[in-house]
Amino acid sequence: MLYSPARFIETDTALIRELIAAHPFATLMSVVEGQPLVSHVPLVADERGWLLGHVAMANPHSAALNEGAEALAIFQGPHCYVSPSWYAEASVPTWNYTAVHVRARLHVLQGDAAQALLDRLTQAFDDPAQPGHMTAAQRARLLPAIHCFALEPLETSAKFKLSQNKSREDQQSILANLGQFEDDNSQGVASLMLRNLAAGFGD
User: Fold this and answer.
1) DSSP bridge pairs for 81
2) Is residue 183 part of a domain?
3) Does residue 11 lie in a domain region?
4) How many C-alpha atoms does 29 have within 13 Å on its Cβ side?
5) Hey, what's the signal peptide range on this chain (predicted)?
6) How many Å apart are CA 121 and CA 41, to the nearest integer?
7) Which of 36, 55, 67, 98 has the most neighbouring CB atoms within 10 Å?
8) Strands (E), 48-186
9) Which residue segment(s) compose the domain that 24 sits in?
10) How far is CA 184 from CA 124, 158, 160, 178, in A?
11) Whole-model pTM?
């Protein structure tokens, strides 16, 4: 379960899907006999919101990804350090971040469904105009070596910790300081904080 004070809970489905689409490289977790199994895999949402992915058959985790098994997919969005020097009054250092946890039921994909998954992942991440782009026939030859699956969401929890507990003045100060950094994480956090300010957080 994702710990999140009420002020940091995000329920906007469109925003959650946007984060997943923009940060598809997920941490996939299963628990077998009390022991955690973890893999890092790209997951792409289909029209239903189910998450599609695969692991190598050689990965021990694949044995736990059976039909009907439960798994947890974790997506990490923009995040950055927030210095206590950025507040009007003394405070403590913290980290602003965004994360989505999806508890899901697993469905194994085989045959044409597995082929369609590989085609979809290739379309999502590769450029067919580039030399070396894999053909459908080449992708089909990979199927015996991979374990393909779809994750049917059972519960989705999103935490967007973006200084909503701070005053408008402090949030604007944080934004001014983040403006000094050009990295994607700092700018991503700043963009989401601006959205919150426009919605009235900190008033």
Assistant:
1) 95
2) no
3) yes
4) 13
5) none
6) 11
7) 98
8) 51-56, 70-82, 94-109, 146-161
9) 6-82+93-166
10) 20, 20, 16, 11
11) 0.93
| Residue 140 · residue 80 · CB < 8 Å | no
Could you tell me if residue 34 is inside a domain? yes
List the single range of 51-65, 87-101, 122-136 with lowest mean pLDDT: 122-136
Nearest to 193 by CA among 1, 6, 10, 2: 10
For 6-63, what is each residue's pLDDT tens digit?
A: 999 999 999 999 999 999 999 999 999 899 999 999 999 999 999 999 999 999 999 9
3-class state of residue 39 by DSSP: strand
* Separation CA 13–CA 23 (nearest Å): 15
Residues contacting residue 98 through CB under 8 Å, at least 6 positions apart? 10, 19, 76, 77, 78, 79, 158, 159, 160, 161, 162, 188, 189, 192
Residue pair 190/180 in contact by the 8 Å Cβ criterion: no
Residue 197 lies in a domain: no
Distance CA 189, CA 78 (A): 6
Long-range CB pairs of 32-40, under 8 A, 24+ apart, other chains included: 32/64, 37/61, 37/64
Q: How many domains does the chain have?
A: 1
What phi-psi label fits residue 34: left (phi over 0), alpha (psi between -120 and 50 degrees) or beta? left
Degrees (nearest 5) of the Cα angle 165, 166, 170?
Answer: 160
